[in-house]
Structure formats: structure tokens, C-alpha cells
Amino acid sequence: xxxxxxxxxxxxxxHEAALAVFAAEGFGRxxxxxxxxxxxxTRGAFYSNFASLDELFLAMWAERSRxxxxxxxxxxxxxxxxxxxTARDLVELVDAAVGVxxxxxxxxxxxxxxxxxxxxxxxxxxxxxxxxxxxLTPVLVSFLRRVGRAVADPRALALALVAVHDGTxxxxxxxxxxxxxxxxxxxxxxxxxLAYTTPGGDA
Amino acid sequence: xxxxxxxxxxxxxxHEAALAVFAAEGFGRxxxxxxxxxxxxTRGAFYSNFASLDELFLAMWAERSRxxxxxxxxxxxxxxxxxxxTARDLVELVDAAVGVxxxxxxxxxxxxxxxxxxxxxxxxxxxxxxxxxxxLTPVLVSFLRRVGRAVADPRALALALVAVHDGTxxxxxxxxxxxxxxxxxxxxxxxxxLAYTTPGGDA
DNA sequence: TGTACCCGATACATTGGTGTATCGAGAGTG
DNA sequence: CACTCTCGATACACCAATGTATCGGGTACA
Lengths: 203, 203
Known about the structure:
Order of helices and strands of chain A: HHHHHHHEHHE
Largest interface: A-B, 45 and 45 residues
Oligomer: homodimer
Radius of gyration of chain A: 19 Å
Distance between the termini of chain A: 49 Å
Number of helices of chain A: 9
Strand order of the largest sheet of chain A: 1-2
Shape of chain A: elongated
């Protein structure tokens, strides 16, 4: 059964409100009450759509990561091949598309920590991360080939890049006014790409 | 004024209880009440020692990172030079000393997210992280020299390693039964060390 | 051993959140 | 246009936590 028009709109507003509240209060401290107030609903609306904040978060996360990967794919597809010749160019392009999103980082970091302590959730998170890496891999391989690099173990590279992304994002956010942090992030990305690939491709 | 004996013991018990409660409930959801109950005190005890949970956490964190760096230094000092000949050896040694601590990771990740959203705290966290990298740097350089590697930019390396540590820790914890995650972590550490150093040293 | 004062206990007034059971407006449907 | 049933609002009963003001036992120190 497809959600009715009314319901779809309700979900949209709840997602939006939840993101704002999670970002402002922290996932752990956000209450159903706050989310509903922000969305302009009573708690009744919430409970007839979700059983818990966890459930709402997972729905948001699925949506958001889908959109993010789509953006990334689009950014890469739109890039002029002539402008992307080296691994560094590619790294900069991807970084620009993915960015360093303060609010989103905080929310996912907190939720991940929460999931690690909640057995059922841990597996769900593991699955999602796996799916993300899985989607990322082929895109990555094909674009690396364009800049003349062959990847021995694409999965390892994808996971390494995700790890570097997470780790450096914190550093960038902790020192938001320091452009050096941003540069170090790009350097590290580049170093990892070079370490996990060998010359050889279309370039 | 040095803390009296009674007070020192109270602090010890509060630290211990706080770590347990933060780990079990999440930093965001932990209450003063819970911490005190676990420690066997009333809230009166808490408020006459700290103004907030933030304050308590910062005290714990300072203590814990001091101890961690001390352990690391000791582990490196104790290692038989004959057994540590390559960058990989060094990486494995450090990894064994630092480890992947579930509870501690969750607690710090949540606190960091919290600090990012709390202006005053963000700077405190930045300072602490800086101090950690600062302490790490000389140790790192001296041991890399032992295994025959020279470091061009020690600070960049230290920060890169911290980022990789953070990023891969999550991955290891999300898939706790997968030894591959652990191996990928070591591989990434090694790749980064090699990328940020050049041959040349005592070896 | 006396005494000053530290520090943890107690009590109080408040606040804000929880989940469920029930109702009825109005969207969806033929 | 009328019928149906979804879904958000309302109301209920309940609990957990907050921070402060005050008290007094016991530690520390001469």
C-alpha cells in the first residue's frame, strides 16, 4: 500500500524536524516531544508512524545516504573529463561533492555510537555501511581508471576512504577555521588513493 | 590545596561509575542520578564536586589520555629492538598497545559530537586533541627512525594516524567478528606510515 | 583531644518526558 | 456524493530527572 498523500507529507515534515532536532540537541537527548513540536504535530502523529526515534532515524538515514551517493555519481558524471587528469583532481572533486557537513556528521556519529551499544541496531548499521561501500566501489573504480589508476582491491580502498573521511571530518570540524585541516584531509585522501592503486588505465 | 583523602576516593568512584554509565547509556542519555547511584552516592556528592557531567567527563578524559599515552610509551620502550624492524612491525606493536576499545570509543565519539555543538567545549576538545598529537609526535619520530624511516612532516603524520585510528575503529566495532576489518585497519596504518615517510634512519 | 570546616546527605519545588487508549475530521474511493 | 477507514489530536496516568538550600557527621590539623 503506497502511503497516502497526507501521510507522505507528514513523513517529510517529521524527517526534516528530526534532523534539525537531532543536530541541535544530539541524538541521545532528542525527545519525541521536541521533534513533534518542531514539525508542528502532536506526539500522536509520531507514534502512529514510528515506534521509536531509532526507527525514524533509520528511515532518514536510508533516504539521506541514497541521495548522497546519487549526488556523488552526478557530480562525477558531470565533471569535464579534461579537467580531471590526476588522482588529486579526483580527490578534490569527490571532496567537493561530499563535503564536510557539521550537523550530519554529529548526528550519524552519535547514532552509530548508540547502535554499537544496541545489538539489533548494530547489524542494521553494518548492513547499511556495507551497502554504501558496495555502491561506492564501482563508481570509484571507473573514475580511477579515467585518471590512469588501476585498483587491486576496490573494496579495501572504498572502506579505507570511508574511514579517512570519517576520521578527518572530525578534525576539520574541531578546528573549523583552520584551512590546514582541510588540506591535510585532501593530502591523506590522495596518499591513500595512490597507495591502493597502481599506474594503468585509460589515461 | 590538595584534595583530602575522602575527596580523592569520591572522585575515583565517580570517575569509574561515570565511565560505566556513559558506556551503557550513551553520554547524551546518562543522568547525574544514574552516575551517583552507580557510585553509591546521592546527587549531593556529585554537585559538590562538579557543576555538570561535561566537567566530569573532561576530568576523566584528561586522566585517561594521559594513561594511554603513558602505556604507549612504555610498550614501545619495552619492545625488543630486534623484533621491530619494519614499519609493519611498528604498526602492529602500536595497535596492540592502543587496541580497539568499544566502550571508550563510544563514549569519546558521543562526547566529541556533543562538544562540536557546544561552543565552549569545542575549543577545549581542540586543545586536548592537539596536546595528544603533540605528545605522540616525538615518540613516533624516534621509533620510526629505529625502523629506518624518516618523517618529513611529523605533525601531519600524527594527525593522519589519529584520523585513521578513529575511522577504522568504527569499522572494527561495527563488524566485531570480522578479522578482515582488523587486518584492513593495519594495512591502512602501514600504507599511511609508508606514504608519509621516506627511507632513511638508523636501521 | 579539641575544634573548624569540608563534603556528602536530605528535602523541596519544578520540569519535561513517556506510551497507550480513544475519538472524530477528512482524505480516498467507487 | 456518500461511505469507509486512515491517521493525527486529545486525554490519561505515570515516572525520572533537575538544581538549590540546608544540615550535620567526621576528617584533618594544631
